[in-house]
Amino acid sequence: MHDGAESETPDDQVVVRKRRKGIYILPNLFTLAALFGGFYAIVMAINGRFDLAAVGVFCAMVLDSLDGRVARMTNTQSAFGEQMDSLSDMVSFGAAPALISYVWALKSLGRWGWIAAFVYCACAALRLARFNVNTAVVDKRYFQGLPSPAAAALVAGFIWLLTENGLTGTGAIEAGRFVWSVPWLMFCLALYAGLTMVTNVPFYSFKDVQMKKSVPFAVIVAIVLLIAIINIDPPTVLFGVFVAYGLSGYVIYAWRKAKGLQTSVVSTSTEEPDERGLHK
Q1: CA-to-CA distance for 245 and 230, rounded, in angstroms?
Q2: Contact between residue 155 and residue 123 where contact means Cβ atoms under 8 Å apart
Q3: Is 116 buried (19+), middle (13-18) or exposed (0-12) by CB count in 10 A?
Q4: Which end of the chain, N or C, is surrounded by fewer C-beta atoms within 10 Å?
Q5: Cα distance between residue 30 and residue 98, in whole Å
Q6: With left for phi above 0 and alpha for psi between -120 and 50, is residue 4 left, alpha or beta?
Q7: 90 exposed, middle or buried (CB, 10 Å; 0-12, 13-18, 19+)?
Q8: Could you tell me which of 201, 206, 205 has the C-alpha nearest to residue 142?
Q9: DSSP string over 161-216
Q10: How far apart are CA 162 and CA 172, in angstroms?
Q11: What is the pLDDT of residues 148-173, one digit of tens each?
């Protein structure tokens, strides 16, 4: 019997299927390549090739800077990509520099050596966790604390520079009447890089630089000159650049303090859990 309305046949019914969630290939390829750079650095350190280990960290840093930009340019951002990026950063810029520095120099200091390596690794984990929590409340122009890729570049750059100059991790640097122990210099640098990651010192992020906007011709010339200068002596130039960047945050902090400006780049969060203790 019919009650006045025609019954629908299976062919007439509209079947709504949920779109399967997938993984974007392009940005995650860069992330995986960055992860491979960190893994490669660890393997090279175990094999005693500390120059290649340092190069692996720097390659991971370049690839890590590209995955986010590629995702935004191709509109392929995803929660999976964000989590993958954080895990890759922990390996490439947390575990890898800590292990490389330990095998190269800190091992000779006994317990002090592995303590310094652990402090660096732990601070990298804390910095990445805080970054994920405070993403929505941080001034995009600045990083809260030294970013982990820059901290890794300090550690790896120091190892690369000394290795290229024929110094070992158990040697010493003679400067006039002073003799500096390489293991203790590595100890101080690892602690500085690690602890600076978890401070509230502001470091310029370069995120307000618009890549899609046109720039004067002089800017292109300056970039070419910078590339040429780096190629003259990559270990020295790159280490010098990251030393300057690693100190720049404290200069910005001191300048803001002297001007009476707010030194923290984080506003107070009203979301749960309460993160106010991290913002002071």
Answers
A1: 16
A2: no
A3: buried
A4: N
A5: 23
A6: left
A7: buried
A8: 205
A9: HHHHTT--TT-EEEETTEEEEHHHHHHHHHHHHHHHHTS--EEE--TT--TTS---
A10: 10
A11: 999 999 999 999 999 999 999 888 88
- In the block, which residue shows the tokens 């809260």? 144
Rounded-to-integer distance, Cα 73 and Cα 212, Å? 10
Tell me the three state secondary structure of residue 48. coil
Q: Which helix (H) or strand (E) holds 259?
A: helix 234-259
Q: Which residues, 6+ apart, have CB-to-CB distance to 231 below 8 Å? A: none
Q: Nearest-CA neighbor of 204 among 273, 279, 121, 140?
A: 140
Rounded CA-CA distance 248/212 in Å is 27
Q: In 74-110, which ranges are continuous DSSP H helix?
A: 79-90, 96-104
Cβ–Cβ < 8 Å for 57, 92: yes
CA distance 107 to 50: 14
Strand partners, 173: 180
What type of residue sits at position 149? P
Show the domains of the chain with their CATH numbers. Answer: 25-267 (1.20.120.1760)
CB contact at 8 A, 268 and 279 = yes
The strand pair at 202-204 and 142-144 is best described as antiparallel
**Whether 56 contacts 38, CB under 8 Å:** yes
Does residue 243 carry a pLDDT above 60? yes
- Between CA 173 and CA 108 the distance in angstroms is 16
Length of the chain: 280
What φ, ψ does residue 178 adopt, rounded to 5°? -100, 145
Per-residue pLDDT tens for 96-148?
999 999 999 999 999 999 999 999 999 999 999 998 888 777 777 888 899 99
